[in-house]
Amino acid sequence: MVHGKDTLPYKDSLEIQKDTSYFDHKTYYPGDTLYIGTCRTFEKIHGQIVNQSDTNCHAFGLWIITDSLGNYWRGILNDGAKEGTWQKFNKVGKLLMDEESVYDMIKHTS
User: Fold this and answer.
1) Helices marked H in the chain — which ranges?
2) How far is the C-alpha of 83 from the C-alpha of 93, rounded, in Å?
3) For the segment 98-107, what is each residue's pLDDT rounded down to a tens digit?
4) What is the tally of structural domains in the chain?
5) Residue 70 is assigned to a structural domain of this protein
6) Is residue 110 part of a domain?
7) pTM of this prediction?
8) Could you tell me if 80 and 25 are in contact, meaning their C-beta atoms sit under 8 angstroms apart?
């Protein structure tokens, strides 16, 4: 599916959250969008593809996770687990914290 100039995977439906919801390892806040149906998803922010999940719903690659106050975390996920350095920023982009994570090197399968 093409939306504007972006190529997006097909989604069965889109739901805008009214309340804080918890699905699997993710938290969705009021106003967040939740795609229902397929697991293969991604977002495009400032021309960069982020927040990807594969067909088994495992998160991978660069993720940018924003809270309801506008603060955000940036780092790499490998099969849903944090890997390497994760950084926390406030809503104006000031670095607040660096956190080092090490992937457990065990192949996770479903």
Assistant:
1) none
2) 21
3) 988 665 555 4
4) 1
5) yes
6) no
7) 0.58
8) yes
